[in-house]
Batch of 2 targets.
Target 1
Amino acid sequence: MVEASRWIAIVDDDPAVLKALTRLLRTRAFDAQRHTGRGQEFLAALPDGLPECLILDLQMPAMTGLELQQHLTRRGIQIPTIIITAQRDIGMRERCESAGAIAFLSKPVQDTSLFAAIDDASEIARSRSRGPS
Protein backbone atom coordinates (compact mmCIF):
# COMPACT_ATOMS: atom_id res chain seq x y z
CA MET A 1 0.00 0.00 0.00
CA VAL A 2 1.17 3.51 -0.82
CA GLU A 3 1.97 5.65 2.23
CA ALA A 4 0.66 9.17 2.80
CA SER A 5 3.09 12.04 2.42
CA ARG A 6 3.01 15.66 3.60
CA TRP A 7 1.18 17.25 0.68
CA ILE A 8 -2.41 18.15 -0.14
CA ALA A 9 -4.19 17.36 -3.40
CA ILE A 10 -6.84 19.72 -4.75
CA VAL A 11 -9.26 18.60 -7.47
CA ASP A 12 -11.51 21.37 -8.82
CA ASP A 13 -12.67 22.33 -12.31
CA ASP A 14 -12.39 26.07 -11.65
CA PRO A 15 -8.85 27.35 -12.28
CA ALA A 16 -9.48 30.42 -10.09
CA VAL A 17 -10.45 28.21 -7.14
CA LEU A 18 -7.38 26.03 -7.68
CA LYS A 19 -5.14 29.09 -7.73
CA ALA A 20 -6.77 30.66 -4.65
CA LEU A 21 -6.63 27.45 -2.61
CA THR A 22 -3.02 26.83 -3.59
CA ARG A 23 -2.04 30.33 -2.51
CA LEU A 24 -3.96 29.98 0.74
CA LEU A 25 -2.31 26.64 1.54
CA ARG A 26 1.12 28.12 0.84
CA THR A 27 0.51 30.74 3.56
CA ARG A 28 0.66 27.82 6.00
CA ALA A 29 3.60 26.15 4.23
CA PHE A 30 1.52 23.33 2.74
CA ASP A 31 2.65 21.80 -0.53
CA ALA A 32 -0.36 21.57 -2.86
CA GLN A 33 -0.75 19.47 -5.99
CA ARG A 34 -3.51 20.72 -8.27
CA HIS A 35 -5.69 18.62 -10.56
CA THR A 36 -7.89 20.55 -12.96
CA GLY A 37 -11.29 19.07 -12.29
CA ARG A 38 -10.65 15.64 -13.62
CA GLY A 39 -10.94 12.80 -11.15
CA GLN A 40 -9.16 10.60 -13.66
CA GLU A 41 -6.14 12.93 -13.60
CA PHE A 42 -5.92 12.58 -9.83
CA LEU A 43 -6.31 8.78 -10.01
CA ALA A 44 -3.49 8.61 -12.58
CA ALA A 45 -1.21 10.47 -10.14
CA LEU A 46 -1.80 8.03 -7.25
CA PRO A 47 1.14 5.73 -8.06
CA ASP A 48 3.37 8.67 -7.06
CA GLY A 49 1.99 8.55 -3.50
CA LEU A 50 -1.02 9.53 -1.45
CA PRO A 51 -1.61 13.03 -0.21
CA GLU A 52 -2.11 13.68 3.47
CA CYS A 53 -5.42 15.32 2.57
CA LEU A 54 -7.66 15.57 -0.49
CA ILE A 55 -9.79 18.62 -1.23
CA LEU A 56 -12.51 17.81 -3.78
CA ASP A 57 -15.00 20.00 -5.56
CA LEU A 58 -18.39 18.30 -5.47
CA GLN A 59 -19.58 19.36 -8.94
CA MET A 60 -17.11 18.49 -11.69
CA PRO A 61 -17.50 17.15 -15.22
CA ALA A 62 -17.19 13.42 -15.92
CA MET A 63 -16.69 12.38 -12.27
CA THR A 64 -18.13 14.29 -9.31
CA GLY A 65 -16.22 14.68 -6.08
CA LEU A 66 -18.56 12.19 -4.42
CA GLU A 67 -18.02 9.65 -7.23
CA LEU A 68 -14.24 10.07 -6.92
CA GLN A 69 -14.42 9.58 -3.16
CA GLN A 70 -16.57 6.46 -3.60
CA HIS A 71 -14.12 5.11 -6.21
CA LEU A 72 -11.20 5.53 -3.80
CA THR A 73 -13.14 3.79 -1.03
CA ARG A 74 -13.98 0.83 -3.29
CA ARG A 75 -10.27 0.49 -4.08
CA GLY A 76 -9.41 0.55 -0.37
CA ILE A 77 -7.60 3.88 -0.65
CA GLN A 78 -8.11 5.95 2.47
CA ILE A 79 -7.35 9.65 2.15
CA PRO A 80 -8.92 12.14 4.56
CA THR A 81 -11.20 14.07 2.21
CA ILE A 82 -12.70 17.55 2.38
CA ILE A 83 -15.58 18.25 -0.02
CA ILE A 84 -16.09 21.86 -1.12
CA THR A 85 -19.19 23.00 -2.96
CA ALA A 86 -21.46 25.87 -3.86
CA GLN A 87 -24.37 23.47 -3.32
CA ARG A 88 -26.09 23.79 0.04
CA ASP A 89 -27.96 20.50 0.10
CA ILE A 90 -28.20 18.78 3.49
CA GLY A 91 -28.88 15.43 1.79
CA MET A 92 -25.70 15.75 -0.26
CA ARG A 93 -23.72 16.66 2.86
CA GLU A 94 -25.00 13.48 4.50
CA ARG A 95 -24.15 11.39 1.43
CA CYS A 96 -20.60 12.75 1.33
CA GLU A 97 -20.09 12.22 5.06
CA SER A 98 -21.52 8.69 4.78
CA ALA A 99 -19.00 8.05 2.00
CA GLY A 100 -16.21 9.11 4.37
CA ALA A 101 -15.71 12.86 3.88
CA ILE A 102 -14.32 14.42 7.04
CA ALA A 103 -15.70 17.88 6.14
CA PHE A 104 -18.26 19.40 3.77
CA LEU A 105 -17.52 23.11 3.25
CA SER A 106 -19.51 25.71 1.33
CA LYS A 107 -17.92 28.00 -1.22
CA PRO A 108 -16.58 30.53 -0.74
CA VAL A 109 -14.55 28.49 1.72
CA GLN A 110 -13.68 30.26 4.96
CA ASP A 111 -9.96 30.07 5.77
CA THR A 112 -10.54 29.06 9.39
CA SER A 113 -12.95 26.27 8.45
CA LEU A 114 -10.59 24.92 5.80
CA PHE A 115 -7.56 24.94 8.09
CA ALA A 116 -9.55 23.29 10.89
CA ALA A 117 -10.59 20.53 8.46
CA ILE A 118 -6.98 20.15 7.26
CA ASP A 119 -5.83 19.85 10.88
CA ASP A 120 -8.40 17.06 11.38
CA ALA A 121 -7.22 15.39 8.17
CA SER A 122 -3.59 15.59 9.26
CA GLU A 123 -4.41 13.98 12.59
CA ILE A 124 -6.30 11.17 10.83
CA ALA A 125 -3.39 10.62 8.42
CA ARG A 126 -0.88 10.54 11.29
CA SER A 127 -2.96 8.07 13.29
CA ARG A 128 -3.29 5.81 10.24
CA SER A 129 0.45 5.91 9.62
CA ARG A 130 1.15 4.95 13.24
CA GLY A 131 -1.15 1.95 12.89
CA PRO A 132 -3.03 0.26 15.73
CA SER A 133 -1.79 1.07 19.22
Target 2
Amino acid sequence: MSYFIAVIMITSVICYGQGLANASIEVEGSKLRYIDALFLCASAMTTTGLTTVNLGDLTAFQQSIFLVLMLVGSIVFVSMFTVIVRL
Protein backbone atom coordinates (compact mmCIF):
# COMPACT_ATOMS: atom_id res chain seq x y z
CA MET A 1 0.00 0.00 0.00
CA SER A 2 2.79 2.42 0.85
CA TYR A 3 4.39 1.63 -2.52
CA PHE A 4 1.28 2.83 -4.35
CA ILE A 5 0.86 5.94 -2.19
CA ALA A 6 4.52 6.97 -2.48
CA VAL A 7 4.68 6.51 -6.25
CA ILE A 8 1.38 8.33 -6.81
CA MET A 9 2.40 11.29 -4.64
CA ILE A 10 5.83 11.66 -6.27
CA THR A 11 4.60 11.37 -9.84
CA SER A 12 1.64 13.71 -9.25
CA VAL A 13 4.03 16.43 -8.12
CA ILE A 14 6.21 15.82 -11.19
CA CYS A 15 3.19 15.85 -13.51
CA TYR A 16 1.82 19.03 -11.94
CA GLY A 17 5.23 20.70 -12.03
CA GLN A 18 5.61 19.87 -15.70
CA GLY A 19 2.26 21.57 -16.33
CA LEU A 20 3.44 24.68 -14.49
CA ALA A 21 6.73 24.72 -16.41
CA ASN A 22 4.80 24.78 -19.69
CA ALA A 23 2.58 27.74 -18.83
CA SER A 24 1.52 28.13 -22.45
CA ILE A 25 -0.14 24.69 -22.45
CA GLU A 26 -3.64 24.79 -21.05
CA VAL A 27 -6.04 21.97 -20.36
CA GLU A 28 -9.58 22.85 -21.41
CA GLY A 29 -8.85 26.57 -21.17
CA SER A 30 -7.11 26.49 -17.78
CA LYS A 31 -3.92 25.12 -16.29
CA LEU A 32 -3.84 21.56 -14.94
CA ARG A 33 -4.83 21.67 -11.27
CA TYR A 34 -2.96 19.58 -8.70
CA ILE A 35 -6.09 17.63 -7.75
CA ASP A 36 -6.50 16.61 -11.40
CA ALA A 37 -2.84 15.56 -11.62
CA LEU A 38 -3.23 13.52 -8.43
CA PHE A 39 -6.39 11.84 -9.72
CA LEU A 40 -4.84 11.07 -13.10
CA CYS A 41 -1.75 9.54 -11.48
CA ALA A 42 -3.86 7.43 -9.13
CA SER A 43 -6.03 6.30 -12.01
CA ALA A 44 -3.01 5.37 -14.13
CA MET A 45 -1.25 3.58 -11.26
CA THR A 46 -4.31 1.45 -10.52
CA THR A 47 -4.99 0.98 -14.27
CA THR A 48 -8.63 2.06 -13.96
CA GLY A 49 -8.50 4.49 -16.89
CA LEU A 50 -10.58 7.28 -15.35
CA THR A 51 -9.79 10.84 -16.43
CA THR A 52 -10.93 14.29 -15.44
CA VAL A 53 -9.31 16.11 -18.36
CA ASN A 54 -8.66 15.41 -22.01
CA LEU A 55 -5.33 13.59 -22.11
CA GLY A 56 -4.66 14.97 -25.58
CA ASP A 57 -4.23 18.42 -24.04
CA LEU A 58 -1.33 17.25 -21.87
CA THR A 59 2.32 17.25 -22.90
CA ALA A 60 4.08 14.17 -24.20
CA PHE A 61 6.13 14.03 -20.99
CA GLN A 62 3.00 13.96 -18.85
CA GLN A 63 1.50 11.25 -21.03
CA SER A 64 4.69 9.20 -20.74
CA ILE A 65 4.44 9.49 -16.93
CA PHE A 66 1.01 7.88 -17.15
CA LEU A 67 2.39 5.12 -19.36
CA VAL A 68 5.12 4.33 -16.83
CA LEU A 69 2.56 4.38 -14.02
CA MET A 70 0.39 1.89 -15.87
CA LEU A 71 3.38 -0.41 -16.25
CA VAL A 72 4.61 -0.23 -12.63
CA GLY A 73 1.06 -0.48 -11.29
CA SER A 74 0.11 -3.54 -13.33
CA ILE A 75 -0.63 -6.78 -11.53
CA VAL A 76 2.42 -8.47 -13.05
CA PHE A 77 4.88 -5.85 -11.80
CA VAL A 78 3.27 -5.55 -8.37
CA SER A 79 3.27 -9.33 -7.91
CA MET A 80 6.90 -9.54 -9.01
CA PHE A 81 7.81 -6.68 -6.66
CA THR A 82 6.09 -8.46 -3.75
CA VAL A 83 7.95 -11.70 -4.38
CA ILE A 84 11.30 -9.91 -4.58
CA VAL A 85 10.63 -8.03 -1.32
CA ARG A 86 9.70 -11.27 0.47
CA LEU A 87 12.91 -12.96 -0.66
